[in-house]
Structures are given as structure tokens and as C-alpha cells.
Write a structure and sequence with these properties.
The complex is a heterodimer of chains A (206) and B (266). The two termini of chain A are 25 Å apart. Chain A has one domain: 3-Layer(aba) Sandwich (Rossmann fold), CATH 3.40.50. Chain A is built from 6 helices and 12 strands. Chain A is of the alpha/beta class and 206 residues long. A 9-stranded mixed beta sheet of chain A has the order 2-1-3-4-12-11-10-7-8, with helices on both faces. Chain A has a 3-stranded mixed beta sheet with strand order 5-6-9, with no helix packed on it. Chain A is globular, with a radius of gyration of 16 Å. With 266 residues, chain B is α/β, with parallel strands linked by helices. Chain B has one domain: TIM Barrel (Alpha-Beta Barrel), CATH 3.20.20. In chain B, strands 1-4-5-6-7-10-11-12 form an 8-stranded parallel beta barrel, surrounded by 7 helices. In chain B, helix 3 links the parallel strand 5 and strand 6. The longest helix of chain B has 14 residues. Chain B is globular, with a radius of gyration of 18 Å. The two termini of chain B are 21 Å apart. The chains are: A alpha/beta (206), B alpha/beta (266). The interface between A and B is large, with 56 and 42 residues.
């Protein structure tokens, strides 16, 4: 069973629907007990980091999700869910789960080399060492993550940012695979079928 | 490569059916919304917009049900507009499965609504839609399905909407709506140059040239309705044509297997 962590985030149902559409046994989980019964966990998220942190803590889910990831169990963070994997966020000085080193930052202004249009909304290319695919993005903050955990990058105007994180059995996508057409569904299938379960190696977060 | 320019398929609906008219009137039936939305997504639409142009309070439950069915049938983003009068309306559309909500007349009546929506739902979910008519050297905004003059200058209202938290602007030229005479390039250029959020150009698409021109004028996305419904343009060939002109466009690709995805991700 795949647990979709339900802390009231706007894309929770979209994520659940997309997992169901690819035939995965996915359920919304709002308790620590529910997480314990899962094989894999998806942490969704859209909107502001501070309120997501408050919701996760308020529902008693923060520590169980952190412990899940720290134990090297398969965890997929989507958009804000990926940003929460880092140590902290500039957005309202919110804490992160600290599973991957780094800080979530606001895009710099266009004068300092940032993108002309913020938030970064729309389809853009994700490039990895061995491939490239288009994915749908909606975000105003970027993953300034430990380079060892970055496996994919995206350019907007002249600004390059990490769009895909991999560390042990942790995967984080700045984009929304649930809204990224057939390729996005293939990514969710890869996670759901265990193709992204990597052996946990000593990484910066351990 | 950089951010792709989007091709958005728009379904204007009333009483649960897709309709399309010219300059907001003379509506003809163009099919079932969910079926059409799924077809356009499969053909390569980057996003789907559903606008309930006859939105009444009585029709709300049917619209909510339609949003749910459309969202379940789609693997690309869905924006929904029509009849959004309050934060509760917008939240209900998002809960039903919409990714973004477009607000138009209610924002003109009460601009603070835009701020409220952005604060509570996030700017990324808030599209401010403007129906605009040419007036001398500039453009003025109309409300209530383009029937009511507001006297507001279009560029001034667009700028205010963004300051209040709009994450995108959907700019419809009333003069060009459904005419296939081309987008109002000056209008889209003027608004795109004044704001730093994506501008979605709407009204007037008739050919690939028209779409290319409005994207070159600065629009982030081009919205198409009747040209698609009536088969004048087809999304996949349109996108290939735009890409050949050097525009950054998402083209169809082979669907990878989970194993291939895992190899890409490393």
C-alpha cells in the first residue's frame, strides 16, 4: 500500500487519483498508525511551507514522516513535499525534515539573474545525466540542495535549479508528476512498483 | 531550453455542455466537456480550462460534479472559471479537482477578493480573467460576460490584479473572440510587458500564424476554443509547427517504462 500523507494540501486528491489511475493501491493517510502499515509514502504539497509544517506537526505526522525517511524507506516528495525534505526553507523561515541537506530559497530577482516570470508556472524540461523529459511546474521557491542529492536540473531564463532529488530511497520532484501527462504517470509507476527503491547508502542526510 | 509556451484548450460550457459563440453570443453546441477535455489532453494540450459561462448558483452542484469527472480523466492541469464570487466558491472548485480558479467579475466588484484568494489558496491557484475591448488607443475591461462597462483601463487592472496576488492573467479580447481574425497582439504585448506573471492570450485564434504571433508578442500561453472544437486547428500539428518556428514547445514523446524512468533518475 502507498500512503499519501494527508495534511490538507491542495494536491492531495490529484496525487491519489493519479496513483489510482496507474493501478496502485494508494490511500490517504492522516495518522502515524496509517503510515506504519504502508510500503511506500508520498508526501504531496502545494502552497506555503509554514502552514504545511504547522499542519503536519498539528496532525502528529511530522516526526513519523521524518523517521520513515531517515530509516531509508521509500519516500516520494512532490513540489512542496520535496522542499520539505531539505533542512529548512526561506519561506517564512520554516523548518524542514532534514532528510536531504540544503535550503529552499526564493528565486532571485530578475536583476540578480533570476527568472523574469515568478512563480515558475508551466511545462519545462528536466535534464538528468542520462535523459530529459518535460514536466509541469508551479513554484516560487527552489531546491538549493546538497549537490550529491541532485539528479535532475531545469533552466528558466538564465537560472538553473535542481528539479529532481535522489538520495538513498528518497525521491523529490520540484515538478508535479501527477500533472505531467504520460511521462509523469510513468514516474509515479516507477515509484509505485519499487523501481526507485534504491539501496540506502551513506548519504549526507544519514 | 527554457520554460515551454503553453497551448491551452478551453471549453466554454453552459448547462454541462460545451458551447462556442462569436463575441460572447450566438452559442452553438460543441460536445461533452469531459470527453473533449480528455481528447485534447491526449492530443497534447498543455492545460485544460473550463469556463462556465452561464454559471448560476443553481448550476453549482452540476459544475462541481463536472470538475470532479474532468480532473479524474486528465493528467494535465485543469483551470476552472465562471461564477466564482467568494473564497468558498474558489475553494470548492479546487477541492473538486481544479488546479487553478479563474475569477473575473467578482474581482472587479471587489478587488480585495484577489488578495484573499491568493493569501488562502496561493497565487499559483489564482488566475484573474479580464474581458477586454479596444477603446481608442487603449483597452477597457468589461464585466459580467462582457456585458457591463467598468471604465477600467485593461493594463491598469492587469497590473493591480498581479499586485494583489494573481498568479496568472487570462486576457480575452472581446473584439476577437470567436472571429478567427488573430489575437489582439498589441493588447497582449502591452499587458505582458507590464507584469511579471504569465499572460494567457485568448480570443481570435484562427491559424498557427496567429498563435505564433501572440507567443512572440510575449504571451506565455495561447488559449484555443472554437478553432479546436470545429477542427480548424489540431493541437499536435500546431505544436510541431510552433516548435519549427523556434518556440519552446512541449512535443509528444514516447512514454517511458518504469525501468527507463528509474535509469533516467539515477
Amino acid at each position: 500500500m502507498i500512503a499519501v500523507v494527508d495534511f490538507g494540501s491542495g494536491n492531495t486528491r490529484s496525487v491519489l487519483r493519479a496513483l489510482e489511475a496507474i493501478g496502485a493501491d494508494a490511500r490517504l493517510v492522516a495518522t502515524a498508525e496509517g503510515l506504519a502499515a504502508a510500503e511506500r509514502v508520498v508526501l504531496p504539497g502545494v502552497g506555503a511551507a509554514p502552514s504545511a509544517v504547522d499542519e503536519l506537526m498539528g496532525r502528529g505526522l511530522w516526526e513519523p514522516v521524518r523517521a520513515w525517511g531517515a530509516a531509508g524507506r521509500p519516500l516520494l516528495g512532490l513540489c512542496l513535499g520535496a522542499q520539505l525534505l531539505l533542512d529548512e526553507s526561506e519561506e517564512g523561515d520554516a523548518p524542514g525534515l532534514g532528510l536531504i541537506g540544503g535550503r529552499c530559497r526564493a528565486f532571485p530577482s530578475v536583476e540578480l539573474g533570476g527568472p523574469r516570470l515568478v512563480p515558475h508556472i508551466g511545462w519545462n524540461e528536466v535534464r538528468t545525466a542520462t535523459g530529459a523529459f518535460d514536466a509541469y511546474f508551479v513554484h516560487g521557491f527552489w531546491l538549493d540542495a546538497d549537490p550529491a542529492a541532485v539528479s535532475g536540473w531545469t533552466d528558466v531564463d538564465n537560472f538553473r535549479f535542481p528539479s529532481l532529488l535522489r538520495a538513498g530511497s528518497l525521491t523529490g520532484t520540484q515538478f508535479h508528476p501527477e500533472k505531467s501527462g504520460p511521462t509523469g504517470r510513468a514516474l509515479l509507476s516507477a515509484f509505485a512498483t519499487g523501481a526507485l527503491d534504491a539501496p540506502v547508502e551513506a548519504a549526507s542526510w544519514s | 531550453m527554457t520554460l515551454r509556451r503553453r497551448i491551452i484548450a478551453c471549453l466554454d460550457i453552459t448547462h454541462g455542455r460545451v458551447v462556442k459563440g462569436t463575441r460572447f453570443t450566438d452559442l452553438v453546441d460543441a460536445g461533452d466537456p469531459v470527453e473533449l477535455a480528455a481528447r485534447y489532453a491526449a492530443e497534447g494540450a498543455d492545460e485544460i480550462t473550463i469556463l462556465d459561462i452561464g454559471a448560476t448558483v443553481d448550476a453549482r452542484p452540476a459544475l462541481i460534479e463536472l470538475i470532479g469527472r474532468a480532473a479524474a480523466a486528465l493528467d494535465v492541469p485543469l483551470a476552472v472559471g465562471g461564477g466564482v464570487r467568494s473564497l468558498a466558491d474558489a475553494a470548492a472548485y479546487l477541492d473538486a479537482g481544479a488546479d487553478k480558479v479563474a475569477v473575473n467579475s467578482a474581482a472587479l466588484r471587489d478587488p480585495a477578493l484577489v488578495t484573499q484568494l491568493a493569501d488562502r489558496l496561493g497565487s499559483q491557484s489564482v488566475v484573474v480573467a479580464l474581458d477586454v475591448a479596444r477603446d481608442g488607443p487603449g483597452w477597457r475591461v468589461r464585466a459580467v460576460a462582457a456585458t457591463e462597462e467598468t471604465g477600467l483601463d485593461a493594463v491598469a487592472w492587469a497590473t493591480e490584479a498581479v499586485e494583489r496576488g494573481a498568479g496568472e492573467l487570462l486576457v480575452t479580447s472581446i473584439d476577437r473572440d470567436g472571429t478567427r481574425a488573430g489575437y489582439d497582439l498589441d493588447l497582449n504585448r502591452a499587458i505582458a510587458a507590464s507584469v511579471r506573471v504569465p499572460v494567457i492570450a485568448s480570443g481570435g485564434a484562427g491559424s498557427a500564424d496567429d498563435v505564433a504571433h501572440v507567443l512572440e508578442a510575449g504571451a506565455s500561453a495561447a488559449l484555443l476554443a472554437s478553432t479546436l472544437h470545429f477542427g480548424i486547428l489540431e493541437i499536435e500539428s500546431l505544436k510541431r509547427d510552433l516548435a519549427e518556428r523556434g518556440l519552446s514547445i512541449r512535443l509528444p514523446s514516447a512514454v517511458p517504462t518504469p525501468r527507463e524512468v528509474a535509469a533516467w533518475l539515477g
